Amino acid sequence: MVRFKQVLLMVIGLLFLAAFPLFASELRLSEVNPKITKIEFKVDESSWNEVYLDSKQIEVSKGSEQLFIRQYKESSLVGRELVYNYDENQESWIYVGLNPPKKVEITLSPYVAVMFTNKTLKHMYSVNFGLGVESEFSFSFHKDLIFIFDFETKYAKSNNIWAKHFIIFGGDIGVGYRFHLANKFLLTPSLLYGIQLHHYVDALQDEPIYLSHILTMSLKAGYKLGLNMNVFITPNAQFMLDSSRNGFLFGLIAGVEFTL
Known about the structure:
Layout: H1 2-23, E1 24-28, E2 38-43, E3 49-50, E4 57-61, E5 66-73, E6 76-87, E7 92-98, E8 104-117, E9 125-139, E10 142-158, E11 165-177, E12 179-180, E13 185-201, E14 209-226, E15 229-241, E16 246-259
Antiparallel strand pairs: 1-4, 2-3, 2-5, 5-6, 6-7, 8-9, 8-16, 9-10, 10-11, 11-13, 12-13, 13-14, 14-15, 15-16
């Protein structure tokens, strides 16, 4: 009985090995730039897998129609995705070109913020802090030129007798330019214009809400944690202007940026 099981297992193993070429195909990468530190591939709509650079060999199941390959230098993507189609007649993968880049790239960045007023705004409050979310859009014609939309909610303790607290709602739009520095660092100066709605809490005056204009200059310093995620800290300088008051605010925001 034991002998029969051993023979049966051997036969099954030989059948599997014989059938393997029917279920798998192979692509060998002949030349790889020495500056490339990682290569990934995916088949059709599957997830990405890493290629072992020592063997430079990719094995995929037969029946697959398309193979995509992308290359990295450190954590930065190099160039565009390479596309291969499987040729049944030649029984091999044929290079067909580059995958078209995304027409629009969108990021979403939740953050925390704190801002301090200069002396001309001290009569309102000394500091405000809160949460916000920033979204950036870049286009394939120039992916480092970015368009920015920002929304935030903040709290401030009042320095005057007209209210106990302020709840501040703000929105900005603007433009920036992303610079890629060495070792995964990014630097993005930007200029934004927006409005802020100040709501007096426990107000003693008839109009507990007022609107102000805001001009913001910022310098975002980011660090890449991966292809689709960065962490950042941004020094901000704001100029507030309305019919009865104007002045400067200075502070920081910090958060995480996700590429959608």
